[in-house]
């Protein structure tokens, strides 16, 4: 027993020493705070082969999926998740760090900022010298979007039609993403110009102009202004990502959040689910305002216990006070930290739902609140369809929104029925995929099939005739026989059924097609049904078909009690259980699908 006590004491000392060691590494390279202890140990152990660090880069750098190495193991550039390569201004040589991974990662961070800044300068200089179409495809997406917003108002009207025409052609995936984001930017600029003309604005001091998010090129640096707030562009590499459609509600939220930044406060958008609270905070960060001083957005913040909220309020006050007095260093929880003044904290809240709590007074004063209740669904759908190259974007957007409005009024009320922004987004994504697969299909048929593919699988049997009647009224010229399934998909599924010694039952094949379509537009899909109704076989056969087409598929039978036991563990070093092990088994660096069978949680676990 004495030896056991001694071993336990030694283990505690070793654990404490390890935690202190990892803490020093995190203080040297703060982005390590985004990693767990196990992931950080895995990185620090790769002293000889820097390429073994690649799987963890995405957690440290939002826009960097991997690094481009030369044959001499020197880092020459960064690659986004979409495959966009940006060359570094100077090479980073990991060998010079002599095994200290955190040292060459700091160099990567510095070179990322310098390279984006250098590319931006060259893009601004090259802009007047080449055609607009050639210039768009020549530079990284982030740089194109940034430079396009510097003085874009005088040309946005002609540029919209030009870029939309490019979208309808044959393009690479990355270029198509860039053009879609560029159309969203130009359409917003066109709307701003029309609004300024309508209000007879002639002065750059007018509030209607000052209230816009404006980009300026000053001394070879990008400057972002809005009302009284002026911030420097951060040059954090974002990759080739889509941008949020700017609506009047989004602009109001931007103004509130930018005002909060100017006063060294946080922002607190609140409203129902699916109104764009979190996405608006993320899109403002994508505007380039956040550098390595990261922005934290705590979702559903008012779900926490009151005691925890009070403690968090004191911690946030400590950070905001240090930023307000422009301190170089400050003491946080007994640790002396270097302060990056670009850091900030945002929270989102759903005050009308059960289980939510009122914020304590010491927290309320630290945030500026903005209500986000009802987004402009039609405007968002119209601009999104326009950015995808749809000519009839206006009428089709109204039909999508009218479909969901009529469904909410006429169909039965079910917990899993959703007619909000997430459902609209799923239809838009499905329409985008269909337009690429079938470019010759009429636009109305594309949208109709997208609506059916996204919604039919979730409706109960008694609601399907009502739904079909609604879409028939909104799309009277389209017949059901015109909406056909991809013949190649049908043939492939039939072959897969034969290989698995299963009968080709039309209903079963229909469910496989529905599952496939839902996986394309949803991050998570739940297959629900009675026992022995074919739920497991649907995804097993579907997974087998996907594996034949080079997709990575992992099927894991799961027991919810393994996760329940993990959740009951106390302390910071708790074991996360089955779910963590399964997720880690599927590499985040490659696209794939994960199926969890019997993944049902009793109410006491949820």
UniProtKB/TrEMBL annotation:
Localization, UniProt: Cell projection; Cytoplasm, Cytoskeleton
Domain Dynein heavy chain hydrolytic ATP-binding dynein motor region positions: 287-536
**Domain of life, source organism:** Eukaryota
A cellular-component GO term for this protein? dynein complex
Main subcellular localisation? other
Where in this chain does the entry annotate a coiled-coil region?
Answer: none
Any idea which UniProt keywords this protein has? Cell projection, Coiled coil, Cytoplasm, Cytoskeleton, Dynein, Nucleotide-binding
User: Is Ligase one of the keywords?
Assistant: no
SUPFAM superfamilies, per the entry? P-loop containing nucleoside triphosphate hydrolases
Entry's Gene Ontology BP terms: microtubule-based movement
Nucleotide-binding as a keyword of this entry, yes or no, is yes
- Listed InterPro entries: AAA_6 (IPR035699), DHC (IPR026983), Dynein_AAA1S (IPR043157), Dynein_heavy_linker (IPR013602), Dynein_linker_3 (IPR042228), P-loop_NTPase (IPR027417)
Residues in domain Dynein heavy chain linker?
2-120
Question: MF terms per GO, please?
Answer: ATP binding; dynein intermediate chain binding; dynein light intermediate chain binding
What is the protein name given in its UniProt record? Answer: Uncharacterized protein
| Species in which this protein is naturally found | Penaeus vannamei
Q: What is the lineage of its organism?
A: Eukaryota, Metazoa, Ecdysozoa, Arthropoda, Crustacea
